[in-house]
Amino acid sequence: MIRLNGWSAIVILAAIGIFLAYGGARALGEVGFWTLVTGSEWYPTIAAPRFGFVPLLIGSAAVTITAIFLSMPVSLAAAVFISEFANKRFKEVAKSIIEFMAAVPSVVYGLIGIAVVVPWVKEAFNLDSGLNAMSGAIVLAFMIAPTIVSISEDALHAVPNDLRQGSLALGNTRWQTTYKVVLPSASSGVLAAVMLGMGRAIGETMAVLMLTGNAARIPGSLFESVRTITGTIAAEMGNVVQGGLHQSVLFTLGLVLFAITFLINLVADLVLEKQRRRWRR
Amino acid sequence: MNRIKRARTVQTVAVAITGAAAAFIIAAALFLFVYIVVRGAPAISWEFLTDVPRKQMKEGGILPAIVGTLALTLGTAAFALPIGVAAGIYLSEYAPRGRSTRLIRLAISNMAGVPSIVYGLFGLALFVILLDLGKSILAGALTLACLTLPVIITATEEALRQIPSDLRQASLALGATRWRTIYRIVLPAAAPGIVTGSILGLSRAAGETAPILFTAAVYYKRQMPDSVFADVMVLPYHIFILATQVTGRPDDIIWGTALVLVGGVTAISVAAATWRSIQRRKVRW
Amino acid sequence: MVTAQSHAGKGSFDLHDVSVTYGSETAIAGVSMHIEPNAVTALIGPSGCGKSTLLRCLNRMNDELGNAKVAGRILLDGVDVYDKEYDPVELRTKVGQVFQKPNPFPMTIYDNVAYGPRTQGIRKRSDLDALVERSLTRAALWGEVKKDLKKHAFELSGGQQQRVCIARALATEPEVLLMDEPASSLDPISTQQIEDTIAELKEYVTIVIVTHNMQQAARISDKTAFMLRESMEEPAFLVEVGETRTMFTNPGDKRTEAYITGRFG
């Protein structure tokens, strides 16, 4: 009985895959997986609808990659400081503040993005509208910072102290020790942290939906409106005919998203597990 | 000597840069908090918390959304707690070391990374359509329970692991069965950790929007829910609607709603974490 | 009312060619000995010689370690406790254990001592009260704690905690009490108190105690068994067992003599 509960995670994970595929069965049959994934036009509601995922995939990729690019340097530096240079008190305070940051609901990030980031982007880059990939990416960068900071901090923290002392005893400074010994030792954990942050960014829905403008076309630059995978599902699923083709296509889109994040998380978890085993003696 | 001097300078610069990064992130978090409080506080009044929305949501309060969020969260707890705690017990106390257990652990951490919108689709397909629960508290709570499960399992397992094996052995040596040892000795000792971890997970579920978009949340509803099959207004969805769909609304209402949501979630989390640290200080292994 | 059970004459162990393996490693091999009822038997030997492992065979606590396998026969009053039909849970109500470090449960003194009886289904308040009082008395703690039985066990001193653990083990009215270096984490005064307690206890139970303190073994035990592991490649074995007085004054084996006189270990 209790064993059954133990297996619940596997059951649910499998069920998610099965039900998304089941929901998407009609689209996969009528339109075909390849046509969906390579189609470059997304006009789901016209008389002869076009269901091409490419604009959405590019939208998600643009926002995610930009967010990672913005968030990674700052988050990693912060993790290094918290793990290697900060005193215990600062560490505890910083950790609980960052935990708060992770607990703020996605819609609230979206709201603050509308109030603060969108006007700023519009002003700073002299645009007609601030609702674009850049605004989404900036807010996302803050949203994924807690993930990257806390997981890479854990990885740095897990490096045994004898390694640090060994390096310090050789006449290295704390910083030299950090980048010559600690960071390389923790590199796979840091990589996993960035990957998990990326998984989070791709899957993030509400804030992105509220900030990117949601035009479903292939953008020419980061300052154009984009529509992400998640935003599309969230915005359109409420207005479809139950059992209709459009609904089925959206399930397929969900399946694609699930597959992407599943793979990213799987690789990151395997990397983390390997890292953990390394320091276990 | 020169080399050492240079290394010192580099060290100082490195500490300054990384310190600035840490300070920047912390400042951003504090800004977030202060901003929500400052903009939301003017709207908070007894009327705001206890009245229904009026005039196309441009006036009135948010009571239905508060009630809806509470109902959904309690429903989530009702499903996720028993399964999550049981799974945590299984992993910590019963699971053999081996491939299947490793697979379970991988599945749990993978589940934690599944996008919330995907849970929403899953809930729509399974609970709303296939099980025909419709858009309802029940369907939403089941969906959110799936999303919260990994947090509760992990919290339970970690809390159980911190209980010294001495205690288990002492109980077994007195002729107690494995199960009695767990529910009389190990679980009570681990309770603070389990409860706090679960509350943190549940308070996060309370702030989710994407999973309940298609499974529980409605745009506007004045009546309070009268059964688990009713659909409800919820705070996060209300914020979304106010921010994107309602034109000409006063900013007060939307920031007030955000403050209620963030403040409630934060207050409960802080209270839970404080309680745990008090409990921990009381009992030191 | 639960009457005080007398186990006089019960609680004797007979070990026949007992060996324990962890995975592929054999920890102890070929131990055969008789443990007398209502006497104190000390297991001595250098650290790592399998004393605790042997002790844990007697109440099948090795079962809980997952990969330990016990071969040979262990008879409690003539009954094979490793028989497939024999329930280890039942065995442990007859064979109690006190651990190296005091490990009271995070609850009151009363609840700690009453834990075993409650496990056995004793619910009546008056029965439990009587058992708690008797067990604490036998563990020489009653006088100190009778006024605050509702006190959390963690608030007691280390020595008091260990005596709570002894009382807790006694409350199930076991025939045998296993003690794994019960005083090793305690100060000298607490150690003295525990030793005094042990001397009194053999009236009620058979005691098997692991100790690395030879003076302690000489002071408190009637019989002494000396175990030894000669190298890491070989399993530990029983060198000899006999009357404590004889072992310490006129040991039969040179290795025993060497150990007792402090030449190794």
Q: How many structural domains in the coordinates of chain B?
A: 1
Count of folded domains of chain C: 1
Unreliable stretches covering 5 or more consecutive residues of chain B = none
Instruction: State the helix count of chain C.
Output: 10
Numbering strands along the chain, what is their spatial order in the largest sheet of chain B?
1-2
User: Judging by the overall fold, what is the CATH architecture of chain C?
Assistant: 3-Layer(aba) Sandwich
Which regions of chain C have little confidence, pLDDT < 50, spanning 5+ residues? none
CATH fold description of chain C: Rossmann fold
Explain how this protein is built.
Chain A has helices spanning 2-6, 8-23, 25-30, 33-38, 54-85, 88-103, 106-124, 133-157, 161-169, 174-185, 187-203, 206-211, 229-236, 245-279, and strands at 42-43, 50-51. In chain A, helix 5 (54-85) runs parallel beside helix 8 and helix 9 packs across helix 10 (174-185). With 281 residues, chain A is mostly helical. In chain B, strands 1-2 form a two-stranded antiparallel sheet. In chain B, a hairpin with a 4-residue loop joins strand 1 and strand 2. The mean pLDDT of chain B is 88. Chain C is α/β, with parallel strands linked by helices and 265 residues long. Chain C has helices spanning 51-58, 88-94, 109-119, 125-138, 142-145, 158-170, 188-201, 214-220, 244-249, 254-260, and strands at residues 13-22, 25-35, 40-44, 68-76, 79-80, 95-98, 176-180, 206-210, 223-228, 237-243. In chain C, the strands form two sheets. A six-stranded mixed sheet of chain C has the order 6-7-8-3-9-10, sandwiched between helices. In chain C, strands 2-1-4-5 form a four-stranded antiparallel sheet, with helices on one face. The model of chain C has no long low-confidence stretch (mean pLDDT 87). Chain B binds chain C through residues 164, 166-177, 180, 184-185, 188-189, 283, and chain C through 59, 61, 64, 89-93, 96-97, 99, 101, 103, 105-107, 115-116, 119-120, 154, 165, 168-169, 172.
